[in-house]
Write a structure and sequence with these properties.
The protein is an alpha/beta fold and 402 residues long. The protein has helices at 12-15, 35-38, 45-49, 64-78, 92-103, 117-129, 146-156, 179-185, 234-241, 254-260, 276-292, 294-314, 342-353, 380-396; strands at residues 24-25, 84-88, 109-114, 132-137, 160-164, 166-167, 172-173, 189-193, 212-214, 228-232, 331-335, 355-356, 358-359, 368-372. Helix 6 links the parallel strand 3 and strand 4 (132-137). Bound molecules: 4'-deoxy-4'-aminopyridoxal-5'-phosphate.
């Protein structure tokens, strides 16, 4: 007689304890989290939850007070008073989709500024909505000037302009000054991706007249991936209210989410089960940013990035972004040195030094190494460690003689 009906055994590899090696994550994100954020929360909720530690369920629903604290933290980090400010239950892509799904309807014209992978992604998402997608192109490593943008606005007359503040695939910081005002003069809304830059480079949502801004939890905020702050201006809210059709995603419907997050003045109704532990960690990441202050965070990222760039130049390496002002303070791109393979270098750093950096992405794949200094990882110590590891790699990794 068969002793079991099961034909698939419990996997042996799952029954062994999880091994997580100690590593310093200096890639483009996720970043190393300070233990406090993984053990979130620091204050208050831990005693009632009984257990304190990664994996402990901290509550069965997200307490409204914590949701309000997250909203206040987002308003501070974004420098906005928008009431429609909340965190999405998903990664940065979730925020891209939430922004585009809610702003656009079939046939709407959107102008997408493409100088790396994120513009390409935004265009792809907008096409899936059925929008009329117009592309404004710049070579990877370059940024858009107000003149470039104005030409695009005049030529295409879009309802929405998408642009990336911190282009993490190329290492470019996009200047935003004047773009909001320019867009509004042309009857267009400004949508900005700040996943890789928030907290690491100045951004002022209200003063810069940005209509929709979003970010991610796993970069400067040092929280685990899986939650994404987003905010809509009054102008953007009006566009949502004027929609003729419902947004194509129920999960990302900003009307439902506004209620869920207590942004619409109505009693909160169940919409979906929040990733509660992720939101507690996000709350703590935002709290750390608020405690340390935005301005000091921006300055720290600037100073450590410039130390890193100088160290790379001193080693004879070539930075991908030529113009110093255009370098993203959170993620630095350096050309793969002649004769080396980027894979050998990243593997060597990981194996011999316990340091993670990344190769290129999208248009920079195979061409660059990407080094992230974000949040708690933006320190002089991290700079010295990664430079030392790279120096060692250049001496010990194989080099082709071609
Ligand atoms: N935009 C930018 C600028 C990013 O750097 C990233 C992530 N690297 C994303 C969007 C997408 O975020 P996620 O990987 O969290 O979905």
């Amino acid at each position: 007689m068969a002793t079991s009906l099961l034909r698939v055994c419990p996997p042996g590899e799952l029954l062994r304890p999880l091994a997580v090696p100690e590593r310093l994550l200096l890639g483009p994100g996720p970043t190393s989290s300070p233990p406090l954020l993984l053990l979130a929360p620091r204050r208050g909720w831990s005693s009632s939850a009984g257990a304190r530690g990664a994996g402990a369920m901290l509550a069965s629903v997200l307490p409204p007070q914590v949701m309000d604290e997250i909203k206040a933290g987002i308003q501070y980090a974004f420098q906005t008073r928008n009431r429609l400010s909340l965190a999405l239950s998903g990664s940065g892509h979730c925020a891209m989709e939430a922004a585009l799904f809610n702003l656009l309807e079939r046939g709407d014209t959107v102008l997408v500024a493409i100088n790396g992978i994120w513009g390409q992604r935004a265009a792809e998402i907008a096409r899936r909505v059925g929008a009329n997608v117009c592309e404004l192109l710049k070579p990877p490593g370059k940024y858009f000037t107000p003149q470039d943008i104005e030409q695009g606005l005049v030529q295409h007359k879009p309802l929405v302009l998408f642009i990336t503040h911190g282009e993490s695939s190329t290492g470019v910081l996009q200047p935003l000054e004047g773009l909001g005002e320019l867009c509004h003069r042309h009857g267009c809304l400004l949508l900005v991706d700040a996943v890789a830059s928030l907290g690491g480079a100045p951004i002022f949502m209200d003063q810069q007249e940005i209509d929709v801004l979003y970010s991610g939890s796993q970069k400067v905020l040092n929280a685990p991936p899986g939650s994404a702050p987003i905010s809509f201006s009054e102008r953007a809210r009006d566009k949502l209210l004027r929609r003729k059709t419902k947004p194509p995603s129920f999960y990302l419907d900003m009307g439902c989410l506004a209620n869920y997050w207590g942004c619409d003045g109505e009693p909160r109704r169940y919409h979906h089960t929040a990733p509660i532990n992720s939101f507690f960690s996000l709350r703590e990441g935002l709290a750390l940013l608020a405690e340390r202050g935005l301005e000091s965070s921006w300055e720290r990222h600037r100073a450590n990035c410039s130390l890193l760039c100088q160290g790379l130049l001193d080693m004879g390496l070539e930075l991908f972004v030529e113009e110093e002002q255009a370098r993203l303070p959170t993620i630095t791109t350096v050309r793969v040195p002649e004769g080396y393979s980027w894979k050998d270098i990243t593997a060597f750093l990981m194996d011999k030094h316990g340091v993670e950096i990344a190769g290129g992405l999208g248009p920079t794949a195979g061409k660059v190494l990407r080094i992230g200094l974000m949040g708690c990882n933006s320190t002089r110590d991290s700079v010295e460690r990664v430079l030392g590891a790279l120096r060692d790699a250049l001496q010990r990794c194989p080099r082709s003689r071609l």
